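Subject: two folds for Thursday's group meeting

Dear M.,

Sorry for the delay on this. The cluster queue was jammed most of the week, so I only got both jobs back this morning. I'm pasting them in the order they finished. Each block is the input sequence followed by the predicted structure tokens. Could you check whether the formatting survives your parser before we put anything on slides? The first protein is the one we discussed after the seminar.
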Amino acid sequence: MNNKKTKVSEKSCSLREVLDIIGGKWSMPIIYMLSKGKMRFKELERSVEGINTRMLVKELKNMEANGILTREVFATVPPTVEYTLTEKGEKLLPSIVSLHQWGQEFTV
């Protein structure tokens, strides 16, 4: 067995930060669904299989706070809310697609 210790670099800290932002169970499926364009809250809720309302709200707030998506509220009754990926969020898509392909190859 190899007892060499892996040297921790400053770069590993940025990976931890990335995982804090998109490491939640539901973040990547939400980002993937939003890659198709603007979506209303209920559309997202129906599209992300298995998510409940509370978790969707939590994940959307986290991603909005981190600049991954924007939230636009319209003054209607009841209020209409639309979510869209920001440029920062769109740059995550190639990585998410790669992880999806890796998962299909090695976890199925």
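Second protein, same layout:
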Amino acid sequence: MLKENGILFDVTLCVGCGSCYKKCKEVNSLPQANNDFLKDHLSNNTYTVVEQYDKLYTRKLCMHCNEPACASVCLVGAIKKSPTGAVVYDGDKCIGCRYCMQACPHKVPRYEWSSTKPRIRKCIMCNNRVQEGKLPGCAEICPTEATLFGNIDKLIEVAKNRLKDNPEKYYQHIYGLEEAGGSHVLIISPVPFEQLGYVSKLPKESMPEFTMRAMEKIPSVVVGGGVFLSAMYWLTKRKNQIAKEEKNNTHGN
């Protein structure tokens, strides 16, 4: 039986070499960017990025939530939580509705805007490689072990011990441990995470659970009218915002 694995990324150990970025491109057969990898952004052709904040480097990728909001809103069941801990998807099932993009608390999934049969694309934690007994490309290539891969419970223990043993070195919080119900990607850092561009102030409840609890308090008669209209307004507004961001990123390159 496959065990639940995860990734622990330690900002203090990252030297910004970009090896994880390049290896991810290689193992996923994605086109290499012509520009500086530090200027690249998450897209349908880039599943992980390295970003610089002053003298610190950090990574952005799918957080592989314990209870993924993207899977809960997928109309066709294209997105699922794998027994390995990864959140995976079936591109052949994807109908391009982009609800997963709107639902993701970490704003990760990206859309194939230029394709005639567009799909959602994102990191799947090298799920096929893991099932073959290999490491994800990013963890395999990292020269400083800033990215570790292994049993999620053991990684949580490693992260907690580093914070406990080096209180002067680390900001005393493990990002991803509780945010949006927790995830299988954990991050530790010497500074608060909002300083590194991570989404902060997320609820501890999983997003599907958070939404379910909110909906249970709304009378059914209201759900049939006002809430539906409000939801459609929010979804439309969010979809337009995503399209604008993608357009700006494309022009920025």
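Two things I noticed about the second structure. The radius of gyration is 18 Å. Helices lie at 19-27, 69-73, 99-103, 127-131, 137-141, 152-165, 207-216, 220-252.

Cheers,
T.
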